[in-house]
Amino acid sequence: MVLFTFNIENIEAETKRGSSLLDEERIRITENNSKAILRILDIHDVKASFFIEVSIAEKLQNLIKAISSKGHEIAFYNKNSTLQEIEEIKKWMEEFLEKQIKGIRQKDHQLPQEDLKMLGFGYVSNIDHADILFPFKRLKRDTEITEEDGVSMVPESISPYSQLPYNDFVFQMLPMKYYKNMVFETLKKDDFVLIYLNSWQFTDFSKYHFGIPFYRKWNSGKKIEDKLDKLLCWINDNEMATSRMKDYIF
């Protein structure tokens, strides 16, 4: 099973030459990037899970409605929100969509699973920090879904041979030929492959001159759209099953 997931977040980098963008403009960039993802998924009839960053969720009502209406899962991405802030946004979101929010993803700021269980989350999908050196570290850890205090803990997927994680950085940098081989070999050993990308990777950096490292601009924007399109074509051609996170776990 291939689990496609997308972190919907604003790009935090400042623009070059000391200029700045208003929050409304950053939201608009995030919306446009997310719509590009939706178009590609719709073409290939693939359902995915979208992890909406907690602090901007209320500003993305139209986008969230569009994601949900197309049959994708809405979950949360917690970057640095408090438990109370998450509780308030979760309550609002569930009333807005008339659906339960089962999943949450965390990276640097991680709340205890017992607190997340108290808020009604059914699974936690934590991810690691990714930088230019991270993919070259040999990673060895359990890739099985476990349950702790009634909450499913979903780890990042790792290639059993190259030991590369399926994070946003690896997808952006690795040639598609090798990435396909990685997916194919992993599915021979593991029951699922969890892939995640960030919405800001779809930004047109020739239009918006953010001060980010050159290796983060490489293969971004339209190039990463094309790369995602090619991967989905290959997955459908090979009749590989895909699923939303909550459907696979529960």
Give an overview of the whole structure.
By secondary structure, this protein is of the alpha/beta class. 39% of the residues lie in helices and 14% in strands. The protein has an 8-stranded mixed sheet with strand order 6-7-5-4-3-2-1-8. Strand 2, helix 2 (61-69) and strand 3 (73-78) form a beta-alpha-beta unit.
Topology, pairings included?
Elements: E1 2-8, H1 23-44, E2 49-53, H2 61-69, E3 73-78, H3 83-97, E4 103-106, H4 113-118, E5 123-124, E6 146-148, E7 151-153, H5 168-173, H6 176-189, E8 193-198, H7 214-217, H8 222-237, H9 245-249
Parallel strand pairs: 1-2, 1-8, 2-3, 3-4, 4-5, 5-7
Antiparallel strand pairs: 6-7
Helix pairs in contact: 1-8
List keywords for this structure.
eight-stranded mixed sheet, alpha/beta, 250 residues, globular
Amino- and carboxy-terminal Cα gap: 14 Å
Q: Main beta sheet, described?
A: 8 strands, mixed
Radius of gyration, in Å, reads 17 Å
Shape: globular
Helix content class: 25-40%
**What count of helical segments does DSSP give?**
9
Identify the strand order in the major beta sheet: 6-7-5-4-3-2-1-8
Estimated structural class: alpha/beta
Query: In percent, how much strand structure appears in the residues?
Result: 5-15%
Mean pLDDT: 91
Number of strands: 8
Low-confidence stretches: none
